[in-house]
Amino acid sequence: MGASSAMFLPLLLEGKWGLPPYLIQESGLNSGFMITQYCSAALASENKSMCFPASADSIPTSMGQEDHVSMGSISARKALRIIYNLEKILAIELLCAAQATRKASLETLIQNGKKILNRMMEYGTTTMETKSGYGLDVENEIKSLLAAKELNLEHPMDVISTFLGAHAVPPEYEGETDDYIELIISEMIPKVAQEELAEFCDVFCEEGIFSVVQTKRILKAAMKYGLKPQIHIDEIV
Fold it and tell me: Which residues form a coiled coil (predicted)?
């Protein structure tokens, strides 16, 4: 998962798909998200180096009767470190994806979406679910769902939309999660429902992101507007 995420970032940063290089306009001395990609690649490489089996270098114990006790703790420590690094890799991908979504125009999202749907149909896929959750503000969450709605109307594949404004807390709301939740409930959900942009509402319920109490609050508000509830829970930890 970490390697796939790290290899996806260059595609976002290379200046294709209607996006500016390094996801920054008129960069000049600003290298945009280049250094974040370095960090992601380094963490992914570190994880690969820790995947060498601990059992391949074990020392017998208990008068030559056992050897698993000498490697079990090593494997556990490496697994914990890999998970810790993976959290950072996925967080970097989310930051880059959010920036890419905000920089892309509605037409860019639609045209790129058509290319992806065409490729999926070549492999026999006829129905897909798409989620927002990378704009993380009113304008860009609505833009993402508008693109999905247009794709469902224009493309032969069935596209089912889910509103995932509660995917993460955007940087501008760092330390103010409740204020962002209020934005979701008071502005995003009503607009999504009014324009019939999604069938479902999803929340990323995870330690350090949205708590169980916060998740219930968002989903209850969504259900009042007729959106069906979904939930990501304990996906990372």
Answer: none
Domain 104-233, second-level architecture: Alpha-Beta Barrel (3.20)
User: What does the pLDDT look like over 32-48, one tens digit per residue?
Assistant: 778 888 888 888 889 88
Q: How far apart are CA 181 and CA 218, in angstroms?
A: 7
Residue 22, CA atoms < 13 Å, CB-side half-sphere: 15
* Sign of the CA dihedral running 32, 36, 37, 39: positive
Residue 23's contacts (CB-CB under 8 Å, 6 or more residues apart) are 12, 13, 32, 33, 96, 99, 100, 103
What is the secondary structure of the chain as a DSSP string? -HHHHHHHHHHHHSS-TT--GGG-SS-TT--TTHHHHHHHHHHHHHHHHTTS-GGGG---BTTTTB-THHHHHHHHHHHHHHHHHHHHHHHHHHHHHHHHHHHS-HHHHHHHHHHHHHHHHHTT--EEEEE--SS-SHHHHHHHHHHHHHHHHHSSSEEEEEEEEETS--GGGTT-HHHHHHHIIIIIHHHHHHTT--SEEEEEE-TTSB-HHHHHHHHHHHHHTTPEE--EESS--
Q: For 157, phi and psi rounded to 5 degrees? A: -75, 145
φ, ψ for residue 162 (rounded to 5)? -125, 130
Residue 24: pLDDT band with limits 50, 70, 90? confident
